[in-house]
């Protein structure tokens, strides 16, 4: 009887959770994200940013949307968290059978805009980085490989959970680097660098995923947990748990293995010191570009103040701010809408506070700058 009562309680709890999520999604549908409130901050066209007084080199960063970026220097490109389908894909991971022709053409346009071709036939993309296993961070990975937009020789780096989901969706002839979290650093541990090639290395960093929403003071993460048993495929996006959330340091290296340009990529808000690389690693080279996630900022105390102060970057690029659940990339390019969960007035109050504090104490000419890009925007950073 006790076992039956326990199972009944678990079933009621599961149903209550499911209905709560459905109710929240319906409420979100009725209060679609507002037009971007700080349009003077928003970069909507390709542009160039000088982060050095006398720049001699350049690197391009193309914002896909959510936490997705093409990061290119010369013949080396890193792709992070690719997700193009937005509201069209909030059911399951995409493949060649469940994607529309118009969306396929949109992906071709973004690839052409980012790397000059709609298929990575020559392998210019050297690595695909997945920060965690939510569908808005890996949802299009199966489609990119099955449609041959991604070269099958391009390895995937991510947590164990992401690997199970990707293989479970039919990607079996691509190198998926297992157990990347075993190499991860933290603010107290150096971790281990992963060498992509002689000019790129990455350092995974233990991070966390902030809650999605708060109800009566209770913080709720809509899809959490790890799946590390076997390869699997789901049809509901809420079944795709995060796994171990990772941030990354991405070093572009000179031919003598010295650091040429350093990028910090984060895909989720997190409490400090989660996501903090060790001070010994930061002492080797300053962060040239910090890619900062805006989503769930108001569910985490002191975010993003503490991570910005700790990293002390030269430039900040803000991502994952847009309303991806009820919009399409083509629509957002014309009419940017923010995520309906968050008030970005509050984000800018926090952000401007830390920028003011840091820049007031900096030597002249060493001001930290930032970019707030719209989707499908390419920026060239000269340094």
Topology overview:
Elements: H1 2-30, E1 42-43, E2 47-50, E3 58-65, E4 68-73, E5 76-80, H2 101-115, E6 125-129, H3 135-138, H4 141-146, E7 156-157, H5 160-168, E8 176-177, E9 194-197, E10 200-206, E11 213-215, E12 218-220, E13 246-253, E14 259-265, H6 279-282, E15 289-293, H7 305-311, E16 315-319, H8 329-334, H9 344-360, E17 369-373, E18 377-382
Parallel strand pairs: 1-17, 2-18, 5-6, 6-7, 7-8, 14-15, 15-16, 16-17
Antiparallel strand pairs: 3-4, 3-18, 4-5, 9-10, 10-13, 11-12, 13-14
Beta-strand fraction estimate: 15-25%
CATH arch. level architecture? 4-Layer Sandwich
CATH class: Alpha Beta
Mean pLDDT: 88
Distance between the termini: 70 Å
Work out the helix count: 9
Largest sheet: 8 strands, mixed
Number of domains as seen in the coordinates: 1
The CATH superfamily label reads Ribonuclease Z/Hydroxyacylglutathione hydrolase-like
**What series of H and E elements makes up the topology?**
HEEEEEHEHHEHEEEEEEEHEHEHHEE
Helicity range: 25-40%
Q: What's the β-strand tally?
A: 18
Shape: globular
The residue ranges in which pLDDT falls below 50 over 5 or more consecutive positions are 1-33
| Helix-strand makeup class | alpha/beta
* Rg estimate, integer Å: 20 Å
Please give the order of strands in the largest beta sheet.
Answer: 1-17-16-15-14-13-10-9
CATH-defined topology? Metallo-beta-lactamase, Chain A
